[in-house]
Design brief:
With 389 residues, this protein is mainly β. The chain has helices at 288-294, 360-366, 377-380; strands at residues 4-5, 19-21, 24-34, 47-52, 58-62, 68-73, 76-88, 91-104, 108-113, 115-120, 122-128, 132-133, 139-140, 145-150, 156-157, 161-165, 185-188, 191-194, 203-204, 209-213, 236-237, 260-264, 278-283, 296-297, 309-313, 317-324, 342-343, 353-356, 381-384. The chain has 2 domains: 4-119, Immunoglobulin-like; 121-384, no CATH class. The strands form 7 sheets. Strands 1-10-8-7-4-5 form a 6-stranded antiparallel beta sheet, with no helix packed on it. A 6-stranded mixed beta sheet has the order 21-20-14-11-28-29.
């Protein structure tokens, strides 16, 4: 997931006097909201909280259409916070700001500059790429999958969402595109796949997920009990009859859901590295034909090679995950996409996954599991076992 923070916290105090009501002094506090970086936020959706830091009492109010929330409180030391969330184009706009301990012994006005952070509704929740031990105790590697999850409180749409793994396919090799001031994109490797739909055909409800896999078949047959069954309804296959793919089977799912092949280079297998892949999901934000006509680039370190890579603009990427193992650990994803990495040293055939950690506080507030999304896989992910079977 991708995170951008804007704005500075400001506090302006205009002092007047408190009201005397039945021998109890109450102070009127007007909390004025604005955002220095996004003037179109909806102030009436903003919940403002005033907390008496000495007694622990909490008051809350919503701002009016002018961006002002009013409190009548007893004198004391208070902190103030404000936040709200809005969703647009599969991006979650989080507005928040706070003011630390403030002496409220006279009526005053507090001004909060709301900081805006952008995160994606759609995140990569889990990746299974190591494979497992088959019935013959040899490595079985055709059962890779990843899970895309709606981590927001609003319905997301999968239509036109693209999926790819990133060049270089292994982190042992330094990326020629690592300088993002020179190359403001992430290079997709060998294949890119895209969900079909006209914009609103494939909704994904809050807290729901989809499985995407190269081979949507039951991999547990013939005694291969360590593997997973990917033949279930609702699973999406990265499959095309005319792509010339090897190590792939036509989907065996009841509904035969398949992603569209957006682009293909010379590869014949869309399986990722079984040790240390990197993945991105994104949507094309430009005219489709314009993008497809200009998006292919060569490796600047190998100008005579005829391999091509799809240049995905960094600003289009909803989420990306960098996976490392025991060997070389060269970053492929820029910090604005993934500021860390998840290290999985389990090895090929281990049957392990890299999966997001749940955010307990956010989950309790949302009423469903919300996963950590701090733009840093080092913090957000852990190594575990498949959540599907």
């Amino acid at each position: 997931m991708k995170l951008k923070l804007f704005g500075l916290l400001m506090l302006t105090l205009f002092v007047s006097s408190c009201n005397d009501d039945d021998d109890v002094d109450f102070c009127t506090v007007h909390v004025n909201l604005f955002s220095s970086t996004n003037s179109v936020f909806n102030p009436e959706k903003v919940k403002v909280v005033a907390t008496n830091v000495q007694q622990g009492q909490v008051w809350s109010a919503y701002a009016d259409q002018t961006g002002v929330a009013k409190f009548e409180v007893e004198p004391g030391m208070y902190s103030f916070s404000a936040q709200y969330t809005e969703t647009k184009n599969n991006l979650v706009m989080n507005f928040s700001g706070s003011v630390g301990e403030t002496a409220v012994y006279e009526s005053l006005q507090v001004t909060i500059d709301l900081k805006e952070s952008l995160s994606s509704q759609l995140i990569i929740k889990e990746i299974y790429y190591n494979g497992c031990k088959g019935a013959d105790n040899k490595n079985y590697l055709n059962d890779q999958y990843l899970i895309i999850y709606n981590n927001s409180t609003d319905t997301a749409y999968l239509d036109s969402l693209c999926v790819a793994h990133v060049y270089p396919s292994r982190s042992t090799n330094p990326s020629a595109f690592a300088d993002n001031s020179k190359y403001p994109f992430v290079p997709a490797f060998n294949f890119a796949w895209m969900f079909p739909g006209n914009g609103h055909e494939y909704p994904l409800l809050p807290g729901h997920q989809v499985v995407v896999a190269p081979n949507c078949v039951d991999h547990t047959v013939d005694g291969n009990t360590n593997s997973v069954d990917l033949s279930k309804a609702g699973y999406w296959a990265c499959y095309s009859d005319d792509a010339g793919l090897t190590k792939q089977s036509a989907p065996a799912t009841p509904d035969k859901l398949t992603l569209n092949l957006l682009w293909k280079d010379k590869g014949t297998s869309c399986l990722s590295s079984t040790l240390d892949p990197a993945f991105i999901i994104w949507k094309i934000q430009d005219n489709f034909d314009n993008f497809m006509a200009t998006c292919l680039v060569k490796n600047p370190d190998q100008p005579k090679a005829d391999n091509l890579y799809m240049a995905v603009p960094i600003d289009w990427i909803y989420d990306g995950v960098e996976c490392f193992d025991k060997s070389g650990r060269n970053k492929r994803l820029p910090s604005v996409v993934d500021n860390g990495s998840i290290i999985n040293e389990s090895g090929v055939g281990s049957g392990s996954v890299v999966t997001r950690k749940a955010d307990a506080e956010a989950s309790a507030a949302a009423g469903f599991t919300v996963y950590a999304d701090t733009n840093n896989s080092s913090d957000d992910f852990t190594v575990g076992t498949p959540s599907i079977k």
